[in-house]
Amino acid sequence: MKQTLATSDRGKILHVQSVHASAISAKLIEMGLYVGQEVEILFSAPFGDPIAVNVGGYVLSLRLNEAALIEVA
Amino acid sequence: MNVNKIALVGNPNTGKTSLFNALTGLNQQVGNFPGVTVDKKVGKLKLSNRSIEIIDLPGTYSIYPRSKDEEVVYDILSNPQHPDFPDAVCVVVDASNLERNLLLFTQIYALAIPIVLVLNMSDIAFRKGKKILLEKLQEEFPEATIIETNARIKSGVKQLMDTLDAGNLVRHTSPKALIAKEDVLTQQKDTEQKFQEINALIKKCVLQDNSTQTRRKVTRLDTLFVHPIWGYSIFLVVLLALFQLIFTLASFPMDLIDSLFGSLSAYLHGILPAGMFTELLANGIIPGIGGVIIFIPQIVLLFFFIGILEETGYMSRVVFIMDRIMRPFGLNGKSVVPLLSSAACAIPGVMSSRTISNWKERLITILVAPLMSCSARIPVYTLLISLVIPNRMVFGFLNLQGLIFFALYALGIISALLVAVVLRMFIKTKEESVLLLELPDLKSPRWKNVGITVFDKARLFLVGAGKIIVAISIVLWALGTFGPTERIQNAVQKIEKPTSKNAIQLAAYEKQVNAVKFENSYIGILGKTIEPVIKPLGYDWKIGISLITSFAAREVFVGSMATIYSVDADGEETRSLLEKMKQEKNTDGQPVYTLASGLSLMVFYVYAMQCMATFAVVKRETKSWKWPIIQLVYMGVMAYVSSWLIFQIFS
Fold first, then answer.
1. B500 exposed, middle or buried (CB, 10 Å; 0-12, 13-18, 19+)?
2. Interface touch A43/B436, C-beta < 8 Å
3. Is the N-terminal amide bond of B536 cis, ω within 30° of 0?
4. 8 Å CB contact of A50 and B218
5. In this predicted model, what pLDDT tens digit does every residue of B434-478 receive, in sequence order?
6. Is A60–B437 a contact, with Cβ atoms under 8 angstroms apart?
7. Angstrom distance (rounded) from CA B454 to CA B449
8. d(CA B372, CA B410)
9. B318: nearest Cα among B231, B218, B251, B258
10. How far apart are CA B137 and CA B103, in angstroms?
11. Which ipTM value was assigned to this complex?
12. Is the Cβ of A13 closer than 8 Å to some Cβ of chain B?
């Protein structure tokens, strides 16, 4: 299985590989999660969901099911 | 060309609102965009010899709408025939996050509208070690006017004003039309393409000094705010402090307003000739207006504190840690604020639901918010509890009265969550529930923004809901004052008039006459008419009357009871009301207020939407009569059924 933002570790510098097609993929890309973007998981909420991600210099919070749409490496 | 109308657009958290406030001050108005629930904020920029109209469009990350509110931006900018189509657009951009912000700018830059690029918050960019080369940026966008501002300290604002005044803005020579609203796939491709271009552009225009990047990516405060134990503890403390402050600070002005309007009524009664007009003014209109103003202290305080929490960025952390907990109920982390505010008063609660961009989640939040027990229920709960609940200890250390009081609050909270789950199944939407929330840097609040938010909300309530509240008060007054003349006369004649001139006896007589007049007014008749309906809940017609008048505001229950039982309700005299109510017997000799009927009435007050102010605010916020009516009905049915059950179980 490919690695997504939902399954990645905190504190690693990662790059977006692809954004799965879904109703919110256009929105995700507009928020800066385009292919090639540098991302890093900063911290997560108490139940592990949602997570806070550094997206090219700003902090975005995503739910895990949203993060699962972002393939990273 | 002369610029008369300007639209302000930008990503959320770019300081767009600060800039709007800096340009227009308090010359702001809130209107409607046809067909959507988002408010249209319009302000006037006063120049030396004329003024420019500025429209503050909803914050968005892209011109292509992903929520209903964002559609406004697309609809206006894509259609030159639109009544709100501007002469020029100011795109406010967070200079410290140029990449994501430039997406919206480049989308609009391609349109045939003169454009100003406002590089805001350049100080933060500087602190992040970023230097933007303005000349280079200008080369990339030759047809845009670029201005650097810092709305926080007002630098650059004057220059922006002058630019807008001069009006020599250029129009794009080779405009491109926007992609169709529905064609998401093409939009997505276009966005990816644009980000590649922006990336290349940033390499040319922004110097990144990596040596100054000493800022910690995760600040210590953030670690604390989202900590499983500390995060929730801090939130709890903030909440407790907030409510303590609201209750202690609001009670004084509220009492003042109450007595002020009371004395105004009495004063008008004294100086105006007796008659219908005086009655209408002193007992209908003045108390009606007072009933609107009385909410202002709570609204102002609540939005003042919420404003601070939002300005500092703390609120987004609360949303972050509460989202997972709220989700199973069809709510969103952002629902926390409106629901908690409703524990003070549902009016600011409903008004603060605006931050929820998903319409379904926002609607559910609005619909369940009034189930949270607000401060107006306190006097009703207190009266009823002391009436039917014995003052004794249970389990050796818990006061039973206090326990019931707590149970009523808990009932409200639990019901709100359960109803949310049910509503979730009935309200359909195509909009996906997403969180995708920017967590802005924590910073000190901008007081002017807090002040303007407070001012805005207070005005919104006064203008938007005030009219309906005053109108309903007048109707309630008329129903309580008028009745079939003959019927009232007959009833009054039956009371024995004291023969002596004893002042106490005369006063007692007066009160009895008033009680009888009230009993035979249309409201009294209405109360008696509904008696068969409320009998199964354990209520008599006197309670029926109070239920109807409670629609003005729940605490009116106590006052109505006092009128009916012809006692004064103020201060110490509540005790005499209590005594009278305790002695009250049914026709069959049984006491009216038993444990069963008392509990039933308490539950009724937890559930029923007896608050015209909330009704009016929901109408305003949802921009339709449909939702407040649905709310009124579902809460009414819930109140009736549960009260009936409670009465049957306990009697």
1. exposed
2. no
3. no
4. no
5. 888 889 888 888 888 899 888 888 887 887 677 777 887 888 888
6. yes
7. 9
8. 9
9. B231
10. 14
11. 0.95
12. no
SS (H, E, C) B148-196: ECECCCCECHHHHHHHHHHCCCCCCCCCCCCCCCCCHHHHHHHHHHHHH
The helix/strand/coil state of B289 is: helix
Return d(Cα B383, Cα B388) in angstroms, integer.
9
Q: What's the pTM value of the predicted model, to 2 decimals?
A: 0.83
- On chain A, the residues whose CB falls within 8 A of the CB of B223 are 43
| Mutation to test the B interface, candidates A33, A58, A60, A66, most B Cβ within 10 Å | A58
| B495 reaches A (C-beta below 8 A) | no
A19 to each of A14, B368, B383, how far by Cα in Å?
A: 14, 36, 60
Integer Cα distance of B23 and B25 in angstroms = 6
Interchain contact B195–A (C-beta under 8 A): yes
Residues of chain A with C-beta less than 8 angstroms from the C-beta of B320 = 45, 50, 52, 61
pLDDT (0 to 100) of residue B569? 47
Summarize pLDDT for B347-401 with one digit per residue, the tens.
888 988 887 878 889 999 999 999 999 888 888 888 899 888 888 888 878 888 8
Helices (H), B376-502: 377-388, 400-426, 447-460, 466-481, 485-494
Does B99 contact A at CB distance below 8 Å?
yes
Count how many pairs of residues, chain A against chain B, have C-beta atoms within 8 Å: 111
Q: Is the pLDDT of residue B304 over 60?
A: yes
Which H or E run contains B131? Answer: strand B130-132
**How is residue B275 written in tokens?**
């008659």
Average pLDDT over residues B284-300: 84
Are B53 and B24 in contact by the 8 Å Cβ rule? The answer is: no
Mutate to test the interface with B, among A16, A30, A51 (most CBs of B within 10 A): A30
CB contacts, 8 Å: A18 with chain B: none
Residue B414 contacts by C-beta under 8 Å, 6 or more apart in sequence?
none
Taking only the tens place, the pLDDT of each residue in B103-150 is 999 999 998 889 999 998 877 888 888 888 999 999 999 889 999 988
